[in-house]
Amino acid sequence: MFKKILIANRGEIACRVIKTAKKLGIATVAVYSDADRGALHVKMADEAVHIGPPPSSQSYIVIDKILAAIRQTGADAVHPGYGFLSENTHFAEALQAAGVAFIGPPPVAIEAMGDKITSKRIAASAGVSTVPGHMGLIENADEAVRIAAGIGYPVMIKASAGGGGKGMRIAWNDADAREGFQSSRNEAKSSFGDDRIFIEKFVTQPRHIEIQLLGDQHGNLIYLGERECSIQRRNQKVIEEAPSPFLDATTRKAMGEQAVALGKAVGYFSAGTVEFIVDCARNFYFLEMNTRLQVEHPVTELITGIDLVEEMIRVAAGEKLRITQNNVRLSGWAVESRLYAEDPYRNFLPSIGRLTRYRPPLEGRRDDGSVVRSDTGVFEGGEISMYYDPMIAKLCAFAPGEGAPARAAAIEAMGRALDDFEIEGIGHNLPFLSAVMAHPRFRQGALTTAFIAEEYPHGFAGVAPSPEDARLLAAVAAHVNLCCETRNIQISGTLANHQRKVGQDWVVTLPAHELAVTVRAQGDGSLVEFADGGSLVVTSDWQPGASHAVFAVGAARMGIKVAPVNSALRLRWRGIDVQAYVRSPRVAELARLMPQKLPPDTSKMLLCPMPGVVTSIAVREGEPVEAGQALATVEAMKMENVLRAERDGIVRRIAAKTGTSLDVDELILEFE
After folding, report:
1. Are the C-beta atoms of residues 649 and 672 closer than 8 Å to each other?
2. For residue range 207-249, what is the model confidence (pLDDT) as tens digits?
């Protein structure tokens, strides 16, 4: 077994590998850039080596710097995590030449499967079902348009060396193909140093389902079931689960056997994933093979009980697999939510800054048998940088059992875990994840990769409370108000040597809902009676000043984030984010007469929607533009974002230049 492992990566995956290495008694080495000097993976490792400036092209993907860190620390093995150098053949060969073990597959497999064009040819030769497309290299946008039209729209434009949704675009017409080719090429070059592009048919109503492989250096190769990864945004996975609610045993077996056949065709060992597109009739087509650990590997670990990182280490050390295909058992259901530093209310644009509050839910097994797991690489007080992937954490929930009941239990466990997750200081997609968990279509398992685009066609604007939700939240607000008022009279009574009484009649105002209530203390909680009938008993351990608490409201268990906002209470729960005003009847009557403050008019301005760098300005001052026309491109967190005109107009002034770094809402240009 190895004595010291260097993790050639950062963030949550570096922390994940360190945990397993420590469990095995193996020392660990972290590498870090200037931006990651105080990062969690640096703190967790036994040793840490500085490797350069923040841009990954000057630090994490510079092979010579990683090799120097290996020599400096005497590490005898390297785990690459995912991304960066994890699928770089030259890196694996350099380690091999240096006599250092690569905790991953052989270089020949990385090379064959890392190139999507070559991998599809090998897959077809191995008897794996493949998607129709053009596997040759494409030189320019004109050629891309001709090929796309020949295949038939819609098509997928993809980077040959791509992954993680980068360098991918869907084209529905010639204009999309032309623009998508250039954007994919630019992203591919900046992310992977390889701008080769290919085009394939885009399968409509597709599901993204992948098979987890695990093999050793002695010829043993098995599959560990599948993962459903259909909830995607911009080709980036957001929510994954295992098993898939769509596959039957026959399809699972066929997909697994084809995945193994592909792995054997390239002499594969270590952990790897074969990704498929599956249509509504359960026809499946090879998409790509990832010759590395996947981001979503924890859900497979939860339903199989197998530590994939541990198995990767053992395989790299020359050990045989400790399990055969006949021993693989899938038990229970697991769901993973990817928590990103992005603002769902601004079309999921990246967000950077300091985590002023970071409190994940408690990990471990619950009384009902469910399990919560949180893989992260950040901590409270840490910074989210603009230089790297925006993932904050991977939150997983597992429930025992089988079939639909187990899936429903896992989804409910995830909903509770998201309710209990506190993050402040940056924009994040937690409200959106909560909304998806509660979405009827998601709960039914009626998924495709177009789920987000179809269900949120105009972006995410939060969840409006239903009448039932409004009553629950109003009861919570009334209870919180009673707690605060009770504390206030106790303080004022002590100071003034007398005590006033707390009123019982209040009006709770939420967006689109106003409920008159009577609130009385009852035991450890409150009895909230509604003027229009009915009542709820609210109990909680919430104390004034607490930012989160679990409230028992009637039969409901609600993990709610509570914060004072001027004269209101901000309540956040299950994707709902509202301000609740608790007023006396007379004050509520007067409040109805108050005019609403209108937001400033920015309709004639193009503001930067996220922190980033302006990579191009596509218009000139005085130029007329049409709705939908590209105006500028801003790069943030390794992704290009094209900003378009919302309506026809004439460019009056351009305030930003190419190469300028902008903050949120800084002016790019304005119209006449």
Report:
1. yes
2. 999 999 999 999 999 999 999 999 998 888 999 999 999 999 9
Place of tokens 């092209």: 57
54 with 172, same domain: the answer is: no
Residue (of 401, 407, 456) closest to 246 by Cα position: 407
User: Domain check: are 501 and 613 in the same one?
Assistant: no
The DSSP bridge partners found for residue 538 are 526, 553
Any idea which residues carry the catalytic annotation? 288
Strand (E) positions, 1-108? 4-7, 27-33, 47-52, 77-79, 101-102
- CATH number, residue 178: 3.30.1490.20
Residues 84 and 108 in one domain: no
SS3 64: helix
Write down the pTM of the prediction.
0.85
Q: How many structural domains comprise the chain?
A: 6
CA distance 221 to 343: 41
- What is the domain extent for residue 319? 104-131+207-327
CATH (domain of 622): 2.40.50.100
CATH number of 440's domain: 3.30.470.20
Ramachandran class of 343: left when φ > 0, alpha when ψ lies in -120 to 50, beta otherwise:
beta
Q: Where are the alpha helices (DSSP H) in 457-603?
A: 467-496, 585-591
DSSP calls for 208-251: EEEEEEEE-TTS-EEEEEEEEEEEEETTEEEEEEES-SS--HHH
pLDDT in tens, 597-631: 888 889 899 999 888 899 999 999 999 999 999 99
